[in-house]
Design a protein that fits this description.
The structure holds two protein chains of two kinds. By secondary structure, chain A is an all-alpha fold. Chain A contains 19 helices and two strands. In chain A, strand 1 and strand 2 form a beta hairpin. The radius of gyration of chain A is 21 Å and the shape is globular. Classes of the chains: A mainly alpha, B mainly alpha. At the A-B interface, helix 5, helix 6, helix 8 and helix 9 of A face helix 4, helix 5, helix 6 and helix 7 of B.
Amino acid sequence: MILLFLLCISLFFAVVLAFVGDWKYAPEINILGSGATFAAGVALAVQVYLQGPMTVGGKFFFVDAFNVYLAVLTSFVSMTTAIFSRKYMRVEREHGRVGPWKMRFYHAMYQLFIFAMLLALLTNNFGVLWISMELATLSTVLLVSLYRTPTAIEAAWKYFILCGVGIAQALFGTVLLYFAAERVLGIGGEALLWTNLSQVSGQLEPTVLRLAFVFLMVGYGTKVGLVPLHNWLPDAHSEGPTPISAVLSGLLLNVALYALVRCKVLVDGSTGTHMAGNMLMGFGLLSVLVAAFSLLRQKDVKRMFSYSSIENMGIATFAFGIGGPIATFGALLHMLVHSLTKSAIFFTVGHASQMHGTQEMDRIRGLIKGNPVVGWSFILGIVALVGMPPFGMFASEFLILTATIKEAPLLTPLLLLGLGVAFAAIFRKVQPMVTGLVPSWQTPLRAAHIPVVLHMTLVLLLGLYMPRFLSDWFHTAVGLLK
Amino acid sequence: MSMSFAAQVNSVMAALILLTAFGLLVQRRILGLIHLFAWQGLFLCISTAIVGYITGMHHLFISSLLTLSFKVILLPYILYVLIRKLDIRRESEVLVNIPRTMMIGIALVIFSYHLTAPVTQLSTMVTKSTLAVALATVMLGLLMMVTRRHAVTQIIGFLAMENGLFFAATSATYGMPMVVELGVALDLLIAAFIFGIFFFHINTTFDSLDVDQMAKLKEED
């Protein structure tokens, strides 16, 4: 019941905001909608924690420890992003970059996007999972091109075409999965349900599933932004409005990885080998390395952090590929802390680029003197992002590294190289941005501090202390993903 | 109509779908592309109805009607209106020359047969031989998107891929569950609106729909 309510809230607010999205209080309505979604998400999580996994609405929806934590994370980050977006979009509107129509469109699509992600996470049906992934892409395509600049349109077109092509491969994979499942479960809608498939995964035809996984990997891998399917990602994540960058990097990539991991569990269960896991490891490690070296060459600040998203999703994919309790636990934690850290960084980056009127890193200077809260939270965000203790990312990367040394020792130097290069690249670029004198072109700004502080506190707490309910959840999820 | 005859008609439809996919690959005029796309949709619609008749699965008739209304009537109509509004009748540019494109296309068809061989061996369905054609249609759509530089042509390639996927679902599994097919149709409808809007944005920003002009976003050295 709570689950249906959770999904309906964002859909309802999407419709409302389509009509009133340019009102004076529309950002507050947006916050209210995301806040209500978050409250429903927490209620759902409590229910799942107390009663265990369940199916809702005639097996159409399904919640377990794995997807409920992502659902709570999605609703939380979308709420804080809505808070950030209130001040950010007001400034954009004052600068005349968005008009009333665009504001309506922006707010409505924001809520629709949240709906699509929650549907993808909570559905029990692999077909509906595909549909909602596509819906999530479609709802954000025109948000990426919101500013109508040539580069924004180019980025959005790339995003639309490449993700459309990629995800079409995933649909072919889903057809093959259905083909294999039908032979065991019989014809009808039941054969695509995760709850049914996971029980009979051992009986599914391995040859078909192996072929299906190749297509699913290419399809959902494109949406995760795995190298070499990542071309659209830095463009799409850097050209749109910053709140959209924050949710794309922080949330949508997680949802796509979630879909991929669900498929991997089925395929490895069917083939009895580690083939799907090995593919995830390969793509993950390649993403880490390529993204780390690409970081060195960036000039645009949002573009750089998009590459950092590729790198971090690569780490999580790699860890899911290794499998086993430690690596999977690390990957789940990594998805959580990366999502919180990256969206916090995008918040500060958004303010920083508004203060300087540019996203070029060479022209962003003296942030600490100009606006201490923005500057310091930027530094702390970076320290967390590159995996320094005591932040949560240190814990997750440490776990993943430990598992790598144990399971695949030969890959450890490569992973360390990626992490090291990324560390150096990001630090080198960010250090001059925060220190130094305030340049003449910097303008003061009333920044939204609450979201950043909230996120960074959570990331810090997760590095110092893992709450009982969270570790229980993760342990259950690790059991599910065996 | 006996079953074996119906199955043969279905194979003919599969052959025609593949033929239109090759036609799309080499057709230069955009209006011609739209016509070919509509024909492909029609063959798909007939094939789906035949499979529905052979197997007695009535939801396939609904999918067949969906195909007819979306892919034969609505989408070609939208595309037609768009190109008339934007006044683009010109021939579109081709990156790779046509004979070479055809050769790559043939290689892709063979590759598709090779790839789906293990699947078709397992299948007991009357439609099993058409799965390779479906995958080939997807691949040819993909090839078309890669070799063409015009926004409208790329979209038609995208839609042809979608046709191939739909055909795959019919031939491998007698159609996906209804909820999935409706959802996919809804996504396609939204995508149609989005590319419609896009054509206008690209056209006003770049003065043409040639996507080669959109090449500013890349890594600098």
